[in-house]
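re the bet — no i am not wrong, look at it urself. input seq straight from the record:
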Amino acid sequence: MKFVKLVVVMCFALLLITGCDEDSKNTLGTDFPTNLDDVGTVMVITPWEGWGREASVMIWTDTEPVTSSLEINGTVYDLEWEFYGVDWSTWVFIDGTSGCGDTFNYDLTINNNTISGSIDAPYLPEVDWPVFNFNENYAFEWTLEADAELQIIEFYLETIDDEIFEEWQISGSERAHEINKSKYQGYENTYDYLDIGIMPVNYKWHNGNNVFVLSHTYTGMTLNPYKSIDYKKLSKKILNNK
């Protein structure tokens, strides 16, 4: 659950950072928050189509929820909150839904602060990932049944000694991207894990209530997800860092 929140915060931070970046197309409205401190509550609706599970809703808030209620598409859900030191969170599954392409009408109340609206869950990208070559730029294309408001391309490479993480925000209408080989060239014999993903995102910012609502899907490719650990190399690193 903490990992999911980290992904959401990183995603949201990327929107703030790259929303006006000259290399990214600005799809954010003029009333969009200028920093994370402006956001008191985050609600994330995630479709799990293809996983055999119903769509889920996760909510984080920085105010203790003495009273709260959530209604999705006319169904009321009980919320059980847990405190994680800095904020409160809750998780529910939405009955009878898988999510991709669905419209979610929501009413969320926390301590008499109520927001209402609707958001469309993005469709799941379909991609035939090309063979990866560490000495070439990596270009790939995908299909998406309908445009999202924006998309995020993620790149992650891990070795025992290094971690490289990059994200790029692109338009929701784009269907191709290329990653420069400078991000990974030279790591072919030392990498332990490599992941590239496409994340379509739709969002709503309830400015007066400081509530950010986000829905996303994710499709990715991974190299060596179960690669065995080089314990000699790991031991050497631990000893060198003592």
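see?? The longest strand covers residues 193-206. told u. also The chain has two domains: 2-123+200-223, 138-196. so pay up
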